[in-house]
Amino acid sequence: MSEDTFKRFWKISSEVASESQRKTPFGSLHKAPDWVFPVIQLSRSSGRADGRPSRQFRILKNLKDEYPVQYAFGLSYTSMTIEPPRYLPWLLGQALTIVPHTKTIINCSRLGARYLKDVKDKVIIPDRGQTCVIKTDFKKMITRRRDQYTYLIPRPASGVLILGGINEHWNTSHEPNPASREMFKQRAFKICPELGPPESMEVVKDIVGVRSTRTGGYRLEREEGIGGRDVTGVHSYGYASGGYQASLGTALQVVQLLKGEE
Ligand SMILES: Cc1cc2nc3c(=O)[nH]c(=O)nc-3n(C[C@H](O)[C@H](O)[C@H](O)COP(=O)(O)OP(=O)(O)OC[C@H]3O[C@@H](n4cnc5c(N)ncnc54)[C@H](O)[C@@H]3O)c2cc1C
């Protein structure tokens, strides 16, 4: 699914690339031929970073020369980032042009699946996330996974950088936690000193969101006779932190399931 999504995103980004230079309809969803995203990870990978599709994959051989902080192993690849406030309105515009008349239900209700009368999926749980947005022209994406997942994700079209992250089971609060914000800044400075010390970072805002994590993994399946009615449906939810990444590939599979091709 991720690979299908990647291919589709890559195609979309190619199609709008020249436009995005001028109008930036979703500026960070584009391939970045002149960027290199050093991705610092501590586990080995074969050919593809994190097993995901990638371009210009390479192992950073002289890590000390290429990257100023002490790490055992590093990967670099070119990919895309999605800036939801730009991407989602564009996507909605696309969808509104093709909404069909149908008797079919596609259930993408996320945490709603826990409470929907005909679904009541009790293995889906909320996982709260928070990030901190700082103003900077820094354009490299850096992630580091250890006991905590630290990431720096640029949104070049908006001139900001996202610092994260955190994962809090069963927390559904949408209030930003200032202590988490400070922690993100500290962790970002630690893996990327060129950002400058935490006290010098210009915070634009906090972002809070609740992921939907499903024990045992996402649910993507067809169901006949939902709620005892003559309705066919496909359930597609529980993608945790991979909703965008899975999205377009999942959509293809939903169509296949509806056509009875899988
Ligand atoms: C902190 C955080 C980090 C993330 N990081 C990543 C990442 O690194 N990579 C990535 O690919 N994605 C990431 N995501 C995106 C995530 O995986 C989801 O795709 C995203 O949160 C949106 O999920 P969704 O489309 O499933 O749900 P939503 O956009 O919330 O859609 C669910 C819809 O169902 C509706 N609904 C619910 N119950 C009912 C009901 N009973 N009746 C009718 N409608 C109902 C809701 O109103 C809502 O419109 C992240 C999200 C968060 C919060």
From TrEMBL:
<dbReference type="GO" id="GO:0003884">
    <property type="term" value="F:D-amino-acid oxidase activity"/>
</dbReference>
<keyword id="KW-0285">Flavoprotein</keyword>
<dbReference type="InterPro" id="IPR023209">
    <property type="entry name" value="DAO"/>
</dbReference>
<dbReference type="GO" id="GO:0005737">
    <property type="term" value="C:cytoplasm"/>
</dbReference>
<dbReference type="GO" id="GO:0071949">
    <property type="term" value="F:FAD binding"/>
</dbReference>
<dbReference type="GO" id="GO:0019478">
    <property type="term" value="P:D-amino acid catabolic process"/>
</dbReference>
<protein>
    <recommendedName>
        <fullName>FAD dependent oxidoreductase domain-containing protein</fullName>
    </recommendedName>
</protein>
<feature type="domain" description="FAD dependent oxidoreductase">
    <location>
        <begin position="103"/>
        <end position="256"/>
    </location>
</feature>
<comment type="similarity">
    <text>Belongs to the DAMOX/DASOX family.</text>
</comment>
<dbReference type="Pfam" id="PF01266">
    <property type="entry name" value="DAO"/>
</dbReference>
<dbReference type="InterPro" id="IPR006076">
    <property type="entry name" value="FAD-dep_OxRdtase"/>
</dbReference>
<keyword id="KW-0560">Oxidoreductase</keyword>
<keyword id="KW-0274">FAD</keyword>
